[in-house]
Write a structure and sequence with these properties.
The strands form two sheets. A five-stranded mixed sheet has the order 5-2-1-6-7. A two-stranded antiparallel sheet has the order 3-4. Helix 3 packs across helix 7 and helix 4 crosses helix 6. Helices cover 41% and strands 16% of the residues. It contains nine helices and seven strands; from the N terminus they run βββββαβαβααααααα. Helix 2 links the parallel strand 6 and strand 7. The chain is of the alpha/beta class.
Length: 250
């Protein structure tokens, strides 16, 4: 069984993989029964791939990979997980995007559990202005360590650097929640996918519990985010149950 922190860069939005990076992670028991999150570097590296068409300029401006960089690389359709990795968990920032990219390369991921650091960060720190990896990297470092964080952030949006930042973020998440196993991490990620706050649009920053019924119903009619829709529905259902209990004559 392998858990990989995993990140991809694609040739356009929802496009072909042009770079993938990975780092194996697990938990180990140390002295005095303390459990640590760690990597033993059995699977640690990155690979670039050549897409079937030129890189979109907007994507190029994000990851700074240009067509010439990929001339001698294997085709995107040849993507494979690192040799010997029997992947059970994929961990990443908005990991669904990366899993979809892997699916487009022809890899079946139906048996792989996705763990999303974006969802967990939003759950733990719902009042942050941004949840981009560089912002979170600065956030989890004390201000007297921002120089160290900056060295890493300079190469942000490269897949391998994003994997390293995600590792640091995961360490902080596990410490905050006292998580000691990969399954506990997965369960927390699944729970955190159902938001307690709104993170974009006209209601950005609002707690769902503080929204009026009409605002919730309006947002339900607009959102395509199934996790958000379920959170909104559950809030309305809970309010209905409370109202019914208040109206009972006994």
């Amino acid at each position: 069984m392998t858990a990989l922190i995993f990140d991809t860069e694609t040739h356009n939005l929802h496009g072909e993989i042009i770079e993938a990076a990975w780092m194996d992670v697990n938990f180990v028991q140390g002295a005095q029964n303390n459990v640590y999150f760690f990597s033993n570097y059995d699977h640690y590296g990155s690979q670039r791939y050549k897409p079937s068409e030129p890189i979109n300029l907007v994507a190029m401006a994000v990851h700074n990979i240009i067509d010439e960089d990929l001339e001698n690389c294997p085709l995107s359709s040849e993507f494979k997980f690192p040799e010997g990795a029997q992947v059970e968990y994929l961990i990443g920032h908005n990991i669904n995007y990366d899993i979809e990219a892997v699916n487009r390369a022809g890899i079946v991921t139906s048996e792989i559990k996705g763990i999303c650091t974006l969802a967990m960060a939003r759950y733990l720190w719902p009042k942050l202005e941004s949840y981009k990896l560089p912002v979170l990297t600065y956030y989890i470092h004390p201000r007297n360590e921002h120089k160290k964080a900056r060295q890493l952030i300079k190469d942000a949006h490269g897949a391998f650097t994003d994997v390293q930042m995600t590792y640091l973020l995961l360490e902080e998440i596990c410490q905050q929640k006292g998580i000691q196993t990969l399954e506990e991490l997965y369960e927390f990620s699944e729970m955190a996918r159902y938001p307690t706050h709104i993170f974009y649009g006209k209601y950005k920053g609002w707690a769902i519990k503080d929204m009026d019924d009409t605002d919730i119903q309006w947002l339900m009619s607009k959102t395509e985010d199934e996790y958000l829709r379920i959170s909104l529905e559950n809030e309305l259902l809970e309010r209905c149950n409370i109202n019914e209990e208040e109206q009972l004559p006994f």
